[in-house]
Amino acid sequence: MTRFEVVRTGASASGAQPATPRNVPHRGGEANPSAKALQDKFSAAIKRVEVIWAETIVYVAPASAHEVIRWLHDDQSQQYDFLSDVTAVEYRDADVPIELVWQLRSLPYRRFLRIKAQLPKGMPLEIDSVWDIYKSADWLERECYDMFGIRFRGHPDLRRILMWEQYKEGYPLRKDFPLRGRFSRSEQLRQALAQNPEARYSMEELTIADAFAELPEDMRERLGKGERTGE
Amino acid sequence: MGLTAPPEHRTVSYAPESQEGWVTTRMDFLVNWARANSLWPMPFGTACCAIEFMATAASDFDLARFGMERMSFSPRQADVLICAGRVPFKLAPIIRRIWQQMPQPKWAISMGACASTGGMFDNYAVVQGIDTIIPVDVYVPGCPPRPEGLIYGIRMLQEKVKNERSSDAGIRDEMEPDPSSQLYIPPSVIDELGEPFGNSVNQTRSGL
To answer: Which among B134, B45, B96 has a CA at the least distance from the CA of A195?
Structure first.
């Protein structure tokens, strides 16, 4: 049984046990067949395919990333139905672009696929959100925006998630961000103490709008006036 | 055996009407004795120090011996805030709010290196010592401190409580932060406290 054979529920009961791959080569291992399928379907959008430690990485053009991921999710022969992570990588070298990384998982086929898109520096860091494909992208993309400042077009509620919403110092995981932050310690503390930890609900977040009538009076009043935090 | 007491020592004559006992003491002593032995902690555990704190409260070390068996998860019924673990800036207003909700008399213990100084987290996200946010009575060093260390800190706090005098009016005044900056201590002092030390001095700023 090869690594990328289709495994259906109960298949392992017939004796074929999923096994840990051994003697994996650094480069040039067996590629995930989805990479070949992508090259056939989106030849122009696929920049290159790498296999490192038996993990397949597909570099796509940023403009087509959403289309590619949509196809991987919808196509019956791929069925990447689980989004493990959305993150980004910035390298020290100023010429190397920032990479956006999607970790995809196909549960029916037991396949992993890593999609990368390179966003050149010196341009606005923007890319289409995959929130309409995977709802789990919501908080992952917010974290990516919080830490790297990458804007996801089409995200329903793109706000900071780890740092507080009024945080002014920038994007902490960027290489030009000093480790201790940009402001002095007293200024950081002053701004941190000025945050209002209770006013963090937006009307969008309360799409439990059914519960609106049961909210406390003051919160209903504030939300009714369209109040948003962090702006 | 020769250990048996002689018969005249085995009985005690007791006449209740002549035995009404009474003591005299100082009011301060009595109040401080009661306070020191019934400190209710407000546990503010954010990291691994909280695990040691739990061990301190559990049966092996048994914090109940010192009158602290009742964890007060409501700040309004707490006497001593035990901050166990690092405090990120996002938690700064929360620990401040909890401190302000605690009624007087109140004390604070800063447990562990991170709560006391920021510890190894000399970065953009972590408060460099909770004494920049709330007044602290006892610092317990360690990473994390063993339960014996925390108990030693608590005993020190009990000593401090026992030596307080109710005639000192000032010690029970609620500190009001500076209205514009919401800080208790001057910004220059906070900057000085937050200066890098030890290995952090050699950290280069990551700039491209």
So the answer is: B96
Amino acid letter, B48 = C
The answer for residues whose C-beta is within 8 angstroms of residue B162's C-beta and 6 or more apart is B29, B32, B33, B36
User: What is the mean predicted confidence (pLDDT) over A17-23?
Assistant: 72
pLDDT of residue A14: 47
Q: How far apart are CA A193 and CA A87, in angstroms?
A: 29
Contact of A92 with B208, CB cutoff 8 Å: yes
| pLDDT for residue A178 | 85
Q: Amino acid letter at A60?
A: V
Helix (H, G, I), strand (E, B) or coil at A114: strand
ipTM of the predicted structure? 0.77
Give the span between the Cα atoms of A38 and A40, in whole angstroms. Answer: 5
Q: Is the pTM of this model over 0.90?
A: no
Instruction: Give kind and range of the element (H or E) at residue A66.
Output: helix A65-74
Query: Which range (B54-58, B110-114, B141-145, B187-191) has the least confidence?
Result: B187-191
Q: Taking an 8 Å Cβ-Cβ cutoff, which residues of chain B contact chain A?
A: 89-90, 92-94, 96-97, 122-125, 127-128, 132-133, 181-183, 187-188, 190-191, 193-194, 196, 203, 205-208
Contacts with B, A 96-155, CB within 8 Å: none
Task: Quick: pLDDT tens for B170-189.
Answer: 777 888 888 888 888 888 88
**Domains within chain B, CATH numbers bracketed:** 26-194 (3.40.50.12280)
Distances (CA, A) of A173 to A102, A177, A210, B127: 17, 7, 38, 18
CATH of A25-162, one of 3.30.379.10, 3.30.420.40, 3.30.460.80, 3.30.43.20: 3.30.460.80
Q: Which of A169, A187, A190 sits opposite B124 (nearest CB)?
A: A169
A229 band by pLDDT with thresholds 50, 70 and 90 = very low
Query: Any alpha helices (H) in chain B, and if so which ranges?
Result: 27-36, 48-57, 92-101, 113-117, 147-162, 187-193
C-alpha of B170 from chain center:
19
Q: How far is CA A154 from CA A139, A195, A205, B116, B180, in A?
A: 14, 27, 16, 44, 39
Q: Is the dihedral of CA A87, A91, A95, A96 positive or negative?
A: negative
For chain B, what is the mean pLDDT? 86
* H or E element in which residue B82 lies: strand B80-84
**H or E, element range at A226:** none
